[in-house]
From TrEMBL:
<dbReference type="GO" id="GO:0005829">
    <property type="term" value="C:cytosol"/>
</dbReference>
<feature type="region of interest" description="Disordered">
    <location>
        <begin position="507"/>
        <end position="534"/>
    </location>
</feature>
<dbReference type="InterPro" id="IPR021147">
    <property type="entry name" value="DUF697"/>
</dbReference>
<keyword id="KW-1133">Transmembrane helix</keyword>
<keyword id="KW-0472">Membrane</keyword>
<dbReference type="GO" id="GO:0030488">
    <property type="term" value="P:tRNA methylation"/>
</dbReference>
<dbReference type="InterPro" id="IPR006073">
    <property type="entry name" value="GTP-bd"/>
</dbReference>
<dbReference type="GO" id="GO:0016020">
    <property type="term" value="C:membrane"/>
</dbReference>
<feature type="domain" description="G">
    <location>
        <begin position="131"/>
        <end position="244"/>
    </location>
</feature>
<feature type="compositionally biased region" description="Acidic residues">
    <location>
        <begin position="521"/>
        <end position="534"/>
    </location>
</feature>
<dbReference type="GO" id="GO:0002098">
    <property type="term" value="P:tRNA wobble uridine modification"/>
</dbReference>
<dbReference type="GO" id="GO:0005525">
    <property type="term" value="F:GTP binding"/>
</dbReference>
<dbReference type="InterPro" id="IPR027417">
    <property type="entry name" value="P-loop_NTPase"/>
</dbReference>
<feature type="transmembrane region" description="Helical">
    <location>
        <begin position="44"/>
        <end position="66"/>
    </location>
</feature>
<keyword id="KW-0812">Transmembrane</keyword>
<protein>
    <submittedName>
        <fullName>DUF697 domain-containing protein</fullName>
    </submittedName>
</protein>
<feature type="transmembrane region" description="Helical">
    <location>
        <begin position="7"/>
        <end position="24"/>
    </location>
</feature>
Amino acid sequence: MPLPRLLTLIFGLTLILGLMIWLIDSLSRLSWQLAYYPLLGPILIFLIIALLGVLIGAFIYYFFLLPRKQQRKRSRRSAPKVSPIKAEAAEENLKAVRQQLKQIQDEVTRREMLSRSREIEQNLARGELMVVVFGTGSSGKTSLVNALMGRMVGKVGAPMGTTEVGETYRLKLKGVDREILITDTPGILEAGVAGTEREKLARRLATEADLLLFVLDNDLRQSEFDPMKMLAEIGKRSIVLVNKADLYTEADLETILARLRERVRGVVSTNDVISITANPQSVKLDTGETIQPESDIMPLIRRMAAILRAEGEDLLADNILLQSQRLGEEARRLIDGQRRRQAEKIVERFQWIGAGVIAVTPLPVVDLLATAAVNAQMVVEIGRVYGCEINMERGRELALSLAKTLVSLGVVKGAIELLSTALQLSVGGFLFGRAIQGISAAYLTRIAGKSFIEYFRHDQDWGDGGITEVVQRQFQLNRRDEFIKSFVQDAITKVIKPLQLEAKIEDDDEPGALVQRPEPLEMEPLEDTIDDWR
């Protein structure tokens, strides 16, 4: 207790004791003097006792209760807080992610994503600083962690995880208000399937770090520089450590550090490239005795403390915001994949329905084939998958616009030629004309459907190249040999075999009848055929 407060306490106790003695004597005299006033006497005595009680209460509050309250206020005031703007942005992102996750149909995936969103939210509430040790397996990462734990807490704590997921320890650093979690990750650039899986885990842990300790055992290789640059591009702050400094002469070590600082310029600050010795080699003395030198990691401790004191709050806030944004992007990718699969099922359904209808009732005009292949109902259903509620009239407008593009780009003619060549060995005789029309309709429907998927994926926008570029790209993607072979096999099952069965039935019913081939396909102006189709 400070001396002025101690003197005040002694004076106060003496004063209270004197007042109590005076009060007893005064009350005794007052009771005799007020004996003739039965009501006034008790009232005055009560007021005097109440006044004395207030004085004692004020004394206790000032010397005992007030200091504790001030201490609690100071504790609350000194507790670090994440940047409110970035924290609010992270919270808004997490809310948006949770709304997106409701659209994910896969129960396991949805639960896993929800768990990750809650984990980010908990990290925001706890505010622990996560330092991740990253590098090759031979660079001495684990030795560095052991040296840090031994130097800073005196004893290596129990790991929070397992070797497979990276071992994490808690530690305190002088001058840093927040608790620090330090994680030793699996090594990168290891051979084999298991090594590749461990590297994926190490990279994921690195992307979740507030601060990275990138450990090297020599000069920087390109295979190490690439992940360092990638992590810096997403906003990760790194300290580059040249470990095993005891293996080099002072001149060689300075040369390595100078070359390394020049190599990482623009990626890592030159002040964040330092040398350490996490686990020095034993030294044999002339006497034959072997001694184990102490680790030299003080340059790292000083640099890490300086960064976390000055930038810890911003690093934490930036990382939480980054994690929430990455989770949102992953949710959008999952939803986009889910919607794409649903839309492709719609396209496949309509392409074979259209193929069957046209194969049964052949069309005499090739332009009309394009308009018939693009079904307005298909457009409406694809739009619904992407949350775009359009009516049939709008669907018909889009269908006609794309049909015009199919013809003007020569896609219809190209599709017929492509499929005719592929079908020559599979279909013969009178069935050829009917089959080629039906299968061409299915193929064109597929190109149209795929084009509309791209249109709705991009918020009903064809992009800078317009509808022409989208259609051309889909045509090129769907004319590859491996796809055409697979498509023709499906077409034989869904179109040609039913036609063969129909022809056989007709032959059985009229054995003497002659079956005529359909007239050759003719080319007519597109505008006339569209008007007729309307």
